[in-house]
Amino acid sequence: MNINMLFFRLKRLPLASLIFPSISIFLIYMIFFANNVSILGIDQSAIKNHKWAHEIEGTWYFPFSSKFKMPKYSYKKKSNWLSNDFVEDIIPEGHIAHYDLNKLHSTKDAMKLKEHVLIATPMQTFHDAYWSNLLKMSYPRSLLELGFIIPRTPTGDETLKKLEAAVKNVQTGKVEDRFAKITILRQDSQSFDKLGEKERHSLAVQKERRSAMALARNELLFSSIGPSTSWVLWLDADIVETPATVIQDMTNHNKPVLAANVYQRFFDKEKNENSIRPYDFNNWAESEKGLEIAKNMNEDEIIVEGYAEIATYRPLMAHFYDKAGKIDALMALDGVGGGCTLVKAEVHRDGAMFPNFPFYHLIETEGFAKMAKRLNYEIFGLPNYLVYHIEE
Amino acid sequence: MKYNKKVSHVVSSNLVSVIGSLFTALVVLKFLISNSLISLPSLLKFVQLNPSHSYVPDFRDTPNVEFYDLRNYKGNKDGWQRNDRIVFCVPLRDAAQHLPRFFDHLDKMSYPHNLIDLSFLVSDSSDDTMGVLLSNLQTAQSQRDKSKRFGNIEIYEKDFGQVIGQSFSDRHGFAGQGPRRKLMARARNWLGSVALKPYHSWVYWRDVDIETAPRTIMEDLMHHDKDIIVPNVWRPLPDWLGNIQPYDLNSWQESEGGLQLANQLNEDAVIVEGYPEYATWRPHLAYMRDPNGDPEVEMELDGIGGVSILSKANVFRSGSHFPAFSFEKHAETEAFGKLSRRMGYNVIGLPHYVVWHIYEPSTEDLKHMEWMAEEETRRIEEEKLREFYNKVWDLGFDDVREEWSFEKDSILKNIDNNEAVNNKLANENEWYENTLEEKNKLLELQKEKSREAAKKKAREEFKNKEKANAERSLNGNKEMKDSLNKGKTENKKESTEKKQDNTNKNMNNEQNPKQEEKGQPGENTNKDAPKQKEAKQNVPADFDPQKQ
User: Membrane-crossing residues (chain B) (predicted)?
Assistant: First the structure.
């Protein structure tokens, strides 16, 4: 009897029209919806839950024979073929690098003694002015290391593309114009770019924003600081104008932590002229009032400068700018901002980082200043040394 | 009709095969899904074309530029299968003697060696730590089996100045703890800041002075998928100290007592665990150990010890470190635990998973060991002396105990009259026999003595006689012959000596008949004569005692 005949007979059978659909419905149900029922199993347990005897017992058969001992872990390689941008780093065989950190120094003659400076920049947006200002710096590029960290956002993608082009342009150019090393990181943790420019300065979001910023700074710092780095210059991506000799000028003071005064150029409509105004209020010296406020605060609260809600009456370096004053006038500080701050690498190496939690009610760069002080480092500011923030 | 029928046949046979293949496809799909070879989320991801995928620049041809997407270095729980690079941070200080053991441990590790980067910080070492380190590294990196070689190796040197010595008691004394911990924290941070590269997914802090650790320690710790994880650290002890002891008391959970204590101290104070000066009543990881416990059991911690810390690189990258200042009244590793928790990372200890620290004797222990050694030599010396004295006693004193046991009874019985009377009836016969025997013995002895004395006397007499004879022979041989003939030597002597004395002659005559009566002269004298001649030849041999 051939198959056609069988089919013909089945078709003739009135029941077949009932049986076939019902069987197929049942099967489909079994396959897709009855999750707990095994197809092959007979004991009502799903096959994916099946365990071999040794798995249940936690032993391996022939426990006394080493021949049958299985390795505890599998060493079969797994890789995600969907996003495989894993950088395979090639390390020379038998490579043993030897660094004597005793010879690492950070002195006032930084340029003469060929001390490496790392310029660290968390970068939300790429400003051409920032890059051109960076290129204008007169410190030898063979002693300059750059570090960037870019948030994981679509705008970050844009920033990265622009930065890539700029970097490629410099690094494939003349050898003497190339930077010693450029490290570009793509952030994975909380994006510090999450909050838009408008709400960026509202008090409520300060803690969250600066916490994210602190994380980004730390990630950048501890990834890019190398064994030869003597100084770290924290330069925000929106600082668009500094003196060309900014590194030489600031290292010349030979201070563990030194902040420049961040101002902003703007067009004063009232006076109808170009003018400048203070921008960064995070450079301050501690006040009695500030300490008192801190004392009465909850552990999780932070004090931020520049808000009417928290009047600390701290002397802010931004207000100490004196046009006629000496440019290298110093001012002792207790809190710093991240606009343009030069830090000896040893301060960071000793452990001073940017707290992403309230550290003595301070966070990020101000918390960093506090931590540096706890490590017995002094903090200074240059009230008359101006760098300029971009005007949005 | 025929045509239609054909068509229906074709259709129907197709239907069967379609249904059949659909069914197989469904079964296969179901099988795949149920075995999670392809999970639904991954399928969805595939369909959506990876929404989280972001722009990746290409810097391959650009010199001195590195790009890293930190997403790829977050640290997976199965890192050894996903090429997670791990950096070993090993602070070294006067560690030359421990390094060979450390490299032995490294060599046996089952984590793929090419994924392990080694970073050492050699500081303030007075021994040849650097030399030993280099030679060990050379041998490790020139192994024939290339899979046994490690990844990138970096050695850093930095001296921090020594606050205190490196001996066990110096390191673990109470007073030096605060400054010491801060200094060590600085050293660790310096190492961490240079060792950590963007491409590291895990960081492992490890002390070199570990006696034994499981080969799979990296996998064992890693598969828990925790931000920071530490095993329990114990150490073996000599028998006289009780075999084993918890070593690392820096791993603990915070307690009310600890918080209270922290509040009382000033800003720069450092609470150190395991010292009676700071009673914190904290639950320590070390004391939670059950030798038969499940090694997978986890315990939340606040402070941790630095013997063996596995942490995701992300923890250090985001700023957590070993505070070299008093952070919440703690420093170094303990403060690292606190700081990391503050930053929102989980800190886990494994109470039943143990690595063994080597045993280093403290100054107290050293003293005790010295004392023990002295005691041992003293004991041996004493043993020798005793042996010597025993010998001297044996030699210097006659052992009379046997004789005494023999004589005791009789002597005691003689002394103690009452006892003798009491025992008389019972022992009379025996006693009597004994005494008799004794008497006989004594008599015998006396006889022997007297005999001896007699012999002596006789000998002397004989000598005298001979002297006299010699004189006489000089005077006149005839007389001597006569006297010989007469037989009696003594008489002759006297007669010859007093020949001319007539008065004496009578006396002699009186004496003589007596003798003649007794001994029948003539024959006897003749018989005696040859005897005397013989006696002259060998004097004492045949002397007759009965003569007397």
Answer: 12-33
